[in-house]
Records
---
Amino acid sequence: MAIIGVSGRLHGSPAVLRALNKAIKEIEGDLSDGFDRALAYARRKAIQKTPKEYGDLRKSIKVDKSKSTRQLTGRVYSTYPTAPLVHEAKGLWVGKQIRRRSMKGNYWDPSGEPKFLEKAFTENHKYILLLISKRAKR
């Protein structure tokens, strides 16, 4: 039996404390795994919505995760120099067959959209939460 004392520390037999610590680590691992899966899914969705010409912008989309004692944080981002300009574009040419000077595709191919990083999360938030919760319920 484990008892939480006034100080907030656990007191009890070493076997119970070891089992409790093991269970906590398993839960943390499952949540972390679900979080990784959710970030990978959001990255795939962002890449699908990214306009393509040479593919450099799509290739530059990365995932970063950090863990502190209280929370997991993650982000999907691009390191490409023009990423902010493309992401924040008004999208006036979306769906129009306007060729690029490079002759490599249209300005906004059918899958390309402005706010491609943002939309990866906003349009898929329910499924992203489901990926995390599935792992947490294991």
---
Amino acid sequence: MNVISAGILAGLGMAVAMGVGELLGMVKINLPRVDGEFFFKTRFNKPVTYLLGLFIHLGTSVCFTVGYLLFRRYGVPHIPWLVAGLLWAATLWLAFGLTVSPVTGYGWFGSKAGKGAWFELLLTHCVYGLIVAKYL
């Protein structure tokens, strides 16, 4: 599978996990929704804002997939894909929790969204990391 396809698949996997979790009341932070609301505020209705946010999310997913390839080539080239995927997921989760989450108003690691937000973000980043690692 190529980088773009793997990035889109992983981004969609993460978005589906967040969407289902949100519908079940288990996920408080849905990144495509967060992306759409951050960049477009209330300019569009909620479905359009979500769809635009999903496109942003998929674009960043592809970019981070390129990052994964560099991570595998120069960082940890000789470890099993499962371990590499989880390490990459943890790296992205740390970066998100320390930068994007506070900037978008959710606090460190989503703390303003609720007690378990840090864990749901970690799990959904693991979905992304494992899909990328499996298909590249």
---
Amino acid sequence: MLQQQETLQGLEVLHFEQVELSKLQNGIDSFIDTGNLAVIYLPSQDCFLLQLKDWNYILDKEFSVFSPPNNLQNSRSYTFPCDHTFFTLKLNKIEDIASIQNLETIINSVTTLSYQDSLPTGCRAVFALTQKGEEAL
């Protein structure tokens, strides 16, 4: 996540309305917010930033993004890993499929987009180990 978003200059390349943001942490899935999602290109860092209100996520080649293969034509969801947490963006009421194709092209140009019904076993195992480690603290 980005801490100093106000110091960066970027160009909004995509925009989606009424996107739902939720997170999965410690086995608990919780709703965070609904709002407009901006996909911003940051030329000074040559990267893409996803921004929904106060939430920011920089696409990173180190992490894979997951999406269910059975997404509906007018709805998509994407799950992003981040520090022992997984964030999910659900894009509702998609009227322009080209925008989704552009988003997925951006994701695939930076990281790997995997179409899976659930998080891969390795991610679940890391997540489970993280939970055990946090409980032991």
---
Amino acid sequence: MTREEKRIELLQEFVSTLSVDGVDLEYHIDWDNTDVVEDFDDLTEMLVESGAFNIEVIYYGSAMEYLTKNDTSLTRSLGLAHEFGYTPDNINSELLASLIKSEDAREEWDEYSSEVDDFFYELEDKLDEYEEEEEE
């Protein structure tokens, strides 16, 4: 196994330990281009570009349930809708729930910042150890 293959294997193992509600992190990572990922910001950029945090809530009932649990007053969702340029004539419960759920996923992902950076900080040492073991 090459160093790059080992790097991907370790990254896959690490990512499989992370969980963000509504997001399949492993699906949204471009495993063929992880060599350019060196920290939390790089990984976040890859996830954002792949649409990982664009979560769509479909069906009125599901949307209303999510809004009832997460934004009863609709203050947050209407604020996000305004930030993204939506007007009252082009919003509905599904859009508002999708905006909130997507924002919640981004915030949940952000909580992993230190853990992800620590992983990448230690990764090169692990790869060096792996190469030394392989040479023996």
